[in-house]
Design goal:
By secondary structure, the protein is mainly α. It contains six helices and two strands. It is globular and about 45 Å long. The model is unreliable at 139-153 (pLDDT under 50).
Amino acid sequence: MRSKRPRFVKCYLNLGRLFDPAEMLFILHMQQVEFLCQASQGGRWSKKFLMKKMGLGEKVFDRCVRRLEQMELLIVSSDYHPVYRWDTALYERLVEILSATDNLEALDGFCRRMFLEEKRCIRGISDFEVEMLGKSALSRRKGGTDHSQKKVI
């Protein structure tokens, strides 16, 4: 008898700086769905199936779809029975942005400014901006916070 390997996806904790728990759950499931789509050369899952798989009600599911589609992470076909696809490359770029610093105040400010206030897309965040965010890292090696840093607005 063949043993089943457990299925898992990586969860980046800094996603919680930008997404609520339902959106994070949605993201984790969509990573798995996209992997299965690519592994089986296709695959269509209905909204009803995805909602059941994720344990989300219709209103919460639709809210997650709108938010992630607005951020261009989720691609939804305009068919009568839409197909939900996950943009893995763009998600990896988002993880790169969210992993640029361990300074949570700077990260919160950056996310608020870029994604909520300026409504920028992930593709619109330059490498220079990510590098500048990275320079706001806390100094852990010296046993404390570097108080000479400027606060990110």
